[in-house]
């Protein structure tokens, strides 16, 4: 099948509907249809009842301004995996009911300031794996209901500290796999509802102590695959809801023993592929922690894999050399764990 222009006849053929029946369509799935372009006036009043339109995985290179303006009831729009480079600031005009928008896996280089001015009810926005180099200040200001934002896999080297200040409902934010080498400590200050956050696969060498000061609801934090050599002892102090932390594949040489002390809900820490210099790493861990990995996983016996060789109480001055944490029942409610980096003989 050669590339085609999307028009009414094509939709009729795909949906097996007559002209009269087209107005009843609520969902149109035209994914994987080798569409290269769209007739500018295609989506007229006939399609006013559409709730969901899927144009993903085609060969669309351009979308005319206002091409979707009559789809006033649309709630989900899928445009991912096309060949889009430039988006007109009028592209989403009139789409005030849009809640879910996917633009990932295109070749988008920049986002015009007014692109999202009408999509005030947007909850989920995918912009991952494009060619975006910068985020224009104010680009997300109208998205006051936004809850999930995917920006990973772009070429963003810096982020303005006020870029997310109006997105108070944001719960999931993904900034991984960009070119970030710095991250302003005030960038997340208004995101008090943030539950999952990723800065993985960047070039970060340090993070300020107050970076997560407002994140009392943060449950999952991914800082893996950066160049972090040191973590401030207070970095996680205010993020008291953290359950999972990813720190693997950094340049960490040491870590403060009490950095996780305030994290009463923490259960899992991933720290493989770092550069710890000491033979034993001492960490204060609460009873909620059930898994902490320092070495690559090759099989399911995590304790053997990571050489958990000793648990002592925080107020103990002695350091036993032959004790083993084998189950929750043998572990004190709060403890200092010594992780031995020597290979067992």
UniProtKB/TrEMBL annotation:
<dbReference type="Pfam" id="PF13855">
    <property type="entry name" value="LRR_8"/>
</dbReference>
<keyword id="KW-0677">Repeat</keyword>
<dbReference type="GO" id="GO:0016020">
    <property type="term" value="C:membrane"/>
</dbReference>
<dbReference type="InterPro" id="IPR031283">
    <property type="entry name" value="AMIGO"/>
</dbReference>
<keyword id="KW-0130">Cell adhesion</keyword>
<keyword id="KW-1133">Transmembrane helix</keyword>
<comment type="similarity">
    <text>Belongs to the immunoglobulin superfamily. AMIGO family.</text>
</comment>
<dbReference type="InterPro" id="IPR001611">
    <property type="entry name" value="Leu-rich_rpt"/>
</dbReference>
<keyword id="KW-0393">Immunoglobulin domain</keyword>
<keyword id="KW-0472">Membrane</keyword>
<keyword id="KW-0812">Transmembrane</keyword>
<dbReference type="InterPro" id="IPR003591">
    <property type="entry name" value="Leu-rich_rpt_typical-subtyp"/>
</dbReference>
<keyword id="KW-0325">Glycoprotein</keyword>
<protein>
    <submittedName>
        <fullName>Leucine-rich repeat-containing 15</fullName>
    </submittedName>
</protein>
<dbReference type="GO" id="GO:0007155">
    <property type="term" value="P:cell adhesion"/>
</dbReference>
<dbReference type="InterPro" id="IPR032675">
    <property type="entry name" value="LRR_dom_sf"/>
</dbReference>
<keyword id="KW-0433">Leucine-rich repeat</keyword>
């Amino acid at each position: 099948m050669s590339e085609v222009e999307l028009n009414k006849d094509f939709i009729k053929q795909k949906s097996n509907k007559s002209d009269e029946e087209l107005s009843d369509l609520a969902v149109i799935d035209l994914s994987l249809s080798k569409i290269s372009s769209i007739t500018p006036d295609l989506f007229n009043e006939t399609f006013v009842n559409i709730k969901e339109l899927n144009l993903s995985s085609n060969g669309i290179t351009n979308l005319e301004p206002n091409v979707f303006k009559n789809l006033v009831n649309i709630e989900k729009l899928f445009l991912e995996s096309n060949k889009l480079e430039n988006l007109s600031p009028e592209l989403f005009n009139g789409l005030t009911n849009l809640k879910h928008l996917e633009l990932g896996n295109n070749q988008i280089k920049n986002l015009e300031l007014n692109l999202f001015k009408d999509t005030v009810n947007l909850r989920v926005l995918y912009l991952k794996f494009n060619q975006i180099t910068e985020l224009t200040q104010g680009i997300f200001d109208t998205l006051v209901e936004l809850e999930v934002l995917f920006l990973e896999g772009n070429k963003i080297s810096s982020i303005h500290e006020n870029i997310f200040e109006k997105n108070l409902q944001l719960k999931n934010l993904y900034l991984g796999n960009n070119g970030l080498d710095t991250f302003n400590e005030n960038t997340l200050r208004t995101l008090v509802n943030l539950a999952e956050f990723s800065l993985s696969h960047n070039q970060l060498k340090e993070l300020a102590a107050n970076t997560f000061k407002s994140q009392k609801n943060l449950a999952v934090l991914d800082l893996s695959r950066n160049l972090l050599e040191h973590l401030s002892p207070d970095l996680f102090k205010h993020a008291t809801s953290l359950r999972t932390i990813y720190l693997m594949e950094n340049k960490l040489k040491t870590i403060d023993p009490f950095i996780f002390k305030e994290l009463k809900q923490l259960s899992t820490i991933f720290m493989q592929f770092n550069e710890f210099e000491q033979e034993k790493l001492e960490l204060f861990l609460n009873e909620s922690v059930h898994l902490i990995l320092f070495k690559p996983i090759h099989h399911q016996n995590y304790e053997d894999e990571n050489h958990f060789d000793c648990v002592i109480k925080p107020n103990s001055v002695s350091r036993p050399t032959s004790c083993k944490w084998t189950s929750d029942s043998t572990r004190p409610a709060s403890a200092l764990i010594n992780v031995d980096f020597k290979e067992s003989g």
